[in-house]
């Protein structure tokens, strides 16, 4: 199985990236491949069909890479910080660069991190988007808080909370099980 984790934070070394790294480790332990596409490291243009605005080649290439990885993925994970009670605009823009072709009947896991009051609301909002893209948002989701992480010397974080580590493992088991069983293959 191949997976793709899209990280929608505006910050490099975000908590959402740290959570994604933890999930990646769990997925790889189970001998599956997964790629993290962190939008703070590989930004995209705002979706723009005018053809009249400046184009940064690197951003265009990033969008092509994202699409290719999403095409190849058997499952996806969307990771977002809580921005104004919802998922980030950066993540929404990335999803706007994709279509149902990349999501149709694929399992999609949802994770987010809040710095204020912990909230799963961004994930409820993302569920609607995944439905519109014809993906299958799996029931287990993860909503962490900054305080669930500890900082490393290089400025990055790692997921330190035991309960969330356990939840992350359950989350990975569930999404892999959906991807492996793939009962909807004939509906693609
Ligand atoms: C534009 C913006 C809006 C935010 N809105 C909220 C919010 O509504 N609730 C909240 O708990 N934190 C909010 N935050 C704080 C972020 O959730 C917090 O910085 C968190 O650590 C981001 O996670 P990250 O490190 O994965 O980017 C906001 C931050 C930004 C930049």
TrEMBL record:
Annotated InterPro entries: Flavoprotein-like_sf, FMN_Rdtase-like_dom, NAD(P)H-dep_reductase
UniProt keyword annotation of Flavoprotein present: yes
Tagged with keyword Flavoprotein: yes
One Pfam family this sequence matches: FMN_red
Annotated ranges, domain NADPH-dependent FMN reductase-like: 1-143
Cofactor(s) demanded: FMN
Keyword list, A-Z: Flavoprotein, FMN
Subunit and interaction comment: Homotetramer.
Similarity comment: family membership: Belongs to the azoreductase type 2 family.
Name the UniProt record assigns to this protein: FMN-dependent NADPH-azoreductase
């Amino acid at each position: 199985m191949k997976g793709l984790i899209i990280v929608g934070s505006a910050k490099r070394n975000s908590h959402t990236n740290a959570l994604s790294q933890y999930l990646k480790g769990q997925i790889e332990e189970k001998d599956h491949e997964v790629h993290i596409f962190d939008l703070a490291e590989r930004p995209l243009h705002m979706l723009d069909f005018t053809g009249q605005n400046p184009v940064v080649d690197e951003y265009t290439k990033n969008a092509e890479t994202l699409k290719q990885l999403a095409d190849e993925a058997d499952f996806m994970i969307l990771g977002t910080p809580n921005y104004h009670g919802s998922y980030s605009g950066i993540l929404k823009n990335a999803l706007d660069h994709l279509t149902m072709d990349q999501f149709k009947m694929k399992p999609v896991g949802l994770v987010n991190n809040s710095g204020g009051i912990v909230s799963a609301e961004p994930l409820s909002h993302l569920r609607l988007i995944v439905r519109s893209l014809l993906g299958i948002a799996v029931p287990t989701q993860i909503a962490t808080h900054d305080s669930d992480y500890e900082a490393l010397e290089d400025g990055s974080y790692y997921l330190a909370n035991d309960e969330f580590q356990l939840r992350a493992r359950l989350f990975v088991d569930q999404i892999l099980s959906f991807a492996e069983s793939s009962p909807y293959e004939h509906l693609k």
